[in-house]
Design a protein that fits this description.
By secondary structure, the chain is α+β, with helices and mostly antiparallel strands. It contains 13 helices and 6 strands. Helix 3 packs across helix 5. The radius of gyration is 23 Å and the shape is elongated.
Length: about 270
């Protein structure tokens, strides 16, 4: 059977419906914002029940191969104890790899996205600039330093050159990217599993985020991310505090945690079949 491919016209029509076809040329407008005020991380998609995933995969090596029966016949309290054992490395911590999250990020500078993509075992999909007009995109700064008027003028001049190149013809959009400052506001999606998330505490050789501007900015992004996860799965959010805090202290808190103290958002998931 001959492979069916979407025609160029079909793809362009789909993009037009979604509002992603750059038919209009926006004016060259630049606003300057600090990342601390703009960064957003949204939990776009996740497993329905990450606790069940950890339980089922970690107990699949126990006893016979009827792993699908173990979750229904185990009490909610028993399921919780298995999950705690996974999180505290007392049984098959690899089960954390089965818990997947997809996040949407906006309000960060483009250079931070490039740095973030160095994260292992993480998948990224980014909005492009090959055929998306960035003439009106904002500039995102980081840290406490304020831009001088001369620096702001430089950004404006670069964006004007970019817009002028784009106005030549459609084929110039590829080369137009050359003139975009790497501090322009960027948006992207990324997928990361639970094991990879907690491994962010060792993003560099020191075992913690460093004090340089790149790592401080990435840490700021992950603090917003952890709060987003806590809103959906409070107990997993508590576990993710190991990214920024003493690992032993957090793991001891996990070990001592009682089922009755779980947030109702979490507790109901242990009662599901």
């Amino acid at each position: 059977m001959e492979e069916q491919k979407l025609s160029y016209e079909v793809v362009e029509n789909l993009r037009k419906v979604m509002g992603t076809l750059p038919e209009e040329r926006p004016p060259v407008v630049t606003e300057f914002h600090n990342m601390s005020d703009e960064v957003e991380v949204t939990l776009e998609d996740n497993m329905t029940n990450p606790y069940k995933s950890m339980f089922v995969t970690s107990t699949s090596t126990w006893g016979d191969n009827k792993f699908e029966q173990k979750w229904p016949i185990t009490s909610p309290e028993g399921k919780f104890e298995v999950v705690k054992a996974v999180l505290t490395h007392n049984t098959l911590p690899q089960a954390r790899e089965m818990v997947q999250f997809i996040f949407r990020v906006r309000g960060v500078p483009r250079w931070l996205f490039d740095y973030h993509t160095q994260t292992p075992f993480t998948s990224f999909m980014s909005i492009g600039c090959r055929d998306n007009n960035k003439s009106d995109v904002d500039i995102i700064t980081v840290g406490d330093r304020k831009l001088s008027d001369a620096e702001k003028n430089t950004f404006n001049e670069l964006k004007q050159i970019y817009a002028d190149v784009l106005n030549e013809d459609q084929s110039s959009w590829q080369s137009g990217r050359t003139f975009l400052p790497q501090s322009y506001q960027h948006s992207y999606h990324f997928g990361q599993n639970l094991l990879s998330l907690v491994s962010m505490r060792g993003f560099n050789a020191s075992g913690k985020f460093g004090d340089n501007i790149k790592e401080r900015s990435l840490a700021e992004l992950y603090k917003v991310l952890v709060n987003e996860v806590k809103n959906k799965f409070p107990f997993i959010g508590l576990y993710l505090d190991v990214i920024f805090n003493d690992t032993d202290a957090i793991l001891n808190k996990i070990r001592d945690y009682k089922f009755d103290n779980l947030d109702e958002k979490d507790k109901r998931l242990f009662y599901e079949n």
